[in-house]
Amino acid sequence: MATYLYKLGRFAFRRRHFVALLWVALLTLAGVGAASAPPAGNSSFSIPGTEAQRAFDLLEQRYPGMSADGATARVVFKAPEGQKMTDAGNKAAVQKTVKELGSGSEVASVADPYTGQAVSRDGTIAYASVKYKVSGMELEDSSRDALKESAGHARDAGLTVEIGGDALTTAPETGSSEVIGIAIAAVVLVITFGSLIAAGLPLLTAIIGVGIGVSTIAALANPLDLGSTTSTLATMIGLAVGIDYALFIVSRYRAELAEGREREEAAGRAVGTAGSAVVFAGLTVVIALVGLSVVNIPMLTKMGVAAAGTVAIAVLIALTLIPALLGYAGRTVKPAGEKSKLLGGGRAAKKSGRPNMGTRWASFVVRRPVAVLLLGVVGLGAAAVPAASLELGLPDDGSQPVSTTQRRAYDLLSDGFGPGFNGPLMVVVDAKGSDDSKAAFAKVGDEIKGLKDVVTVTPPTPNKAGDTAIITVVPKSQPSSATTENLVHAIRGKSASIASATDATLLVTGATAMNIDVSQKLNDALLPYLALVVGLAFLLLIVVFRSILVPLKAALGFLLSVLAALGAVVAVFQWGWLSGLMNVEQTGPVMSMMPIFMVGVVFGLAMDYEVFLVTRIREAYVHGENPGQAVVTGFRYSARVVTAAAVIMIAVFSGFIGSSESMIKMIGFGLAIAVFFDAFIVRMAIVPAVLALLGRRAWWLPAWLDRALPNVDVEGEGLRTQSDPDEDRELVRA
């Protein structure tokens, strides 16, 4: 592989005009496609295989036009101090608002508080329920705007009005976070390379790659039902790996120049060596992202595949566009150790006898491997302890900041009707196979009334055919509580006895039940996903490193860093440690998607650092150095680059911690702390310590397996015999 990529790098450098024109054409084509494509709404949301989804599907059949999974909103009214919602003026204002709410084209129904018993016992709080024809993910912005405007008119009449429900759900804005991440990345790259041109190349190519990827997603969004949220993960990951991969190749190119090679030859060797690491690192990321399909949540699968496509583009750009741009840059990209005229006066590299920081650190670890290993493992183990108390759930309006109308509506409803009122359960009774459907409906209602933690059970609401009914159950506890989850399981536990006594089927659905089912589905998929991703990557790394123990060490180190990161997330967002510093207003269960999302994203980035760092170490070992010295040599050339890449990623992810959305804040913190643990403790401390302890055994591979595996030559051993067409000419050293 190294020889093939070497030739590709030289070709891209030599035919730079053709390569650059090709990528510009692809970017233009993707941009035109995105601009001319019909605008895509938000992707439809379904959770195949869950009881809540089966109930929604049944309701669609038995209650035509009901829009069972349609978005809902609760417009909550509170009377001024000393007044009641039943006062004539207040009642008139509410009824006018209800009339306005019902005029929207996507509105299915609006319930008047005064005819639907939606006024609190003390008369101070009332609410109007709005039902939409489409889900919250598909709702048009115009419908949300109309909802907010209607509430504004009621406020003008002197009422306190807040809006809750999933109708206000929108894709979070992340543009400012991306800008912050890019700005910090630029500073780190300038410090790393000492040159504005060299620093600009990774940024430019990463932006081009993300531009092509996101534009392609926008062009295909309508026919593939990708939705506006699909591009978020693609942008985040594409930007991250795009900078990383370009950084690796530009760094290796400068190192080759420092050894005296001519620029085209240096570009070829940089792509042949660092490019090989980029290819396999990219494959691990693609495996991790495409592997999200095992969860069987269509939206998550689409996000993973789209992001994987953007990663593939980043790999291709690193292998072709980077050497082409290096050809254009010419002498402005200096050999390693030299500074540009602007930043360093154009001074040449100094032949100092003092080793760099990476060399000094690796030498220390090689001398004290046991101490470093124990300290790293114990430290991460301590950080992982809170993960044992991990509670999973999905955020609701109660987890929103108190400054939002959703949270204020949630609190008003809790005050007026009890905490469980914010998470009613919808029990669907399918009595099509029953001889007496009315008796079956009554039996279900009576059974539920006898359960603990139940406040209200409404009378059954049958369909026109009389073979299906809906019963609404209001719990005592808030929607995200473990008590409410136990109630859902208790109701479902009555299904067998109901079926035996009445031949009717009982299903529990609604937003709260759906959240519980999603959490359970994600939790059940975590171990299979881990086995798939880690297993495939383990096999891939055996091919890359031609070793059994090195890939095993890589996988175990990754698991340790993820557990530590999950522990940190639990400590901050569930226990409330440092919640003030992180501006966490409401602690509670960790988002259900967090563990599997963290595994997918962090695994890909962790393997980036592992492949780039360890291939440098193996390269030195294959070229004749002893195991300990190979570790030091690998760190001499790669520690600075891996450190820079990790700092950039931490900066990009940390930018999301400032988001007002609790979910985005949690993702940003979790990914940032996971990259910190993995890059600086696992890869920079535990990895060299383990390699130093294992010695030559680290690179052991059974002879039969060695013969069976393809020789991909990631270390560039084949390039040592590769003839240099310019070797007879004087080498260009500037």
Describe the model:
The protein has 734 residues and is α+β, with helices and mostly antiparallel strands. The protein is built from 23 helices and eleven strands. The strands form three sheets. Strands 6, 7, 8, 9 and 10 form a five-stranded antiparallel beta sheet that branches. The protein has a four-stranded antiparallel beta sheet with strand order 2-3-1-4, with helices on both faces. A hairpin with a 5-residue loop joins strand 8 and strand 9. Helix 2 (16-36) runs parallel beside helix 7, helix 4 (88-101) runs antiparallel to helix 5 and helix 19 runs antiparallel to helix 20 (594-622). It is elongated, with a radius of gyration of 30 Å.
Count of discrete alpha- or pi-helical segments spanning 4 or more residues: 23
How would you classify the helix and strand content by structural class?
alpha+beta
Helix content: 55-70%
Strand percentage lies at: 5-15%
Low-confidence stretches: 725-734
Overall 3D shape: elongated
Straight-line N-to-C gap: 29 Å
Compute the gyration radius: what is it? Answer: 30 Å
Largest sheet: 5 strands, antiparallel
Number of strands: 11
Query: What value does the average pLDDT take?
Result: 82
